[in-house]
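Exercise: predict the structure of this protein bound to cytidine-5'-monophosphate.
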Amino acid sequence: MAGSLRGLSVFALVVGASAFAPPAPARLARGVGHHRTSAIMAFDKAARPADACVLAPAKVNLFLRILRRREDGYHELASLFQALELGDTLRVWKLADDVPSTMDLVWDDGADADAKRPDVPTDASNLVLRAFELFAKRTRSPMRVHVELTKRIPVQAGMGGGSADAAAALFAANRLAGYPASMRELREWGAELGSDISFFFSTGTAYCTGRGEKIESLPPLAPGREITVLKPVEGLSTAVVYRTLDLASLSPLDPDRLLAAMRASPAGLLDPANFVNDLEPPALAAVPRLAQIQSALRAKGWRVVMMSGSGTSIFCLGPPEGAPPLSGWSAELGAACFPTRFASRAEEDERVWYGE
Ligand code: C5P
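Solution:
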């Protein structure tokens, strides 16, 4: 996974919840960049290595069918989720039980240091700290931590970034506690925090139903398959996209058939007819530029061009022969480019995580 952003200009910036010391150049573990260190820290990060370091892979929805609106306001869906090598990293230090948990954010998304980024909270409302809190509650044992979250997954992109971070946090908490919880328990606790979190306890390819929390792990579809994701500068909130969804114009296609077609042969995974996302129309209506970007990509010869989740990221499969890499001209489309691959996890074992 370390090579997933190879080729991007990597620039990282630490944005903590507390006051900062003046910027001091430093080297990140895996790249070049600037590093700012919090002036007020619960402990000195440099003094000891992290107690756990886990990856949080992004996901795309290879298809996403919305079946109906439920009485609780959520939507019943049927979707084929696929994990990617592109991912965030959580470094976790255990703290004494009597100090509050804290976190720092490091942007490693290839953008300039002063680029405008969505506001990601680093206080107790962040899903990562909420996941550690929930783990402590469910296992009835204190778990105070400092987390350094390195963000590479685009935000407001429909790539499950926040959910992946929360899943990775639950996994890290379990590891730090000596694995008291089963994978099934972690998955159930994850579902309490968000609909997409359960998926990350699958093996990386899963058919998800319910509000997204019911998962059926599948054998890897196309291990290591190259996929290029574009993230337009605009972002979208999942809740807003669902709110503007027109239930009268959902796709009529049977999700079980889509799944069978995608699993049947490698050709099924490159047939645009199988790639359906019911959240695409409301997202395209909210950000009309997304449709223009998609048209430009199709005109260049990409076989599959589709939005992931509630957007705004667009993934592309089946590159045109001999075409220059998308990263060379995605800036012309007002989008960042993330070339990556399908990822999978060996098994649903509480001691094994992505990239291990
Ligand atoms: O569960 P999560 O907090 O990730 O969902 C974010 C929002 O997306 C929900 O508040 C809901 O409005 C919408 N949603 C939905 N149906 C789903 C999943 C999410 O309506 N299956």
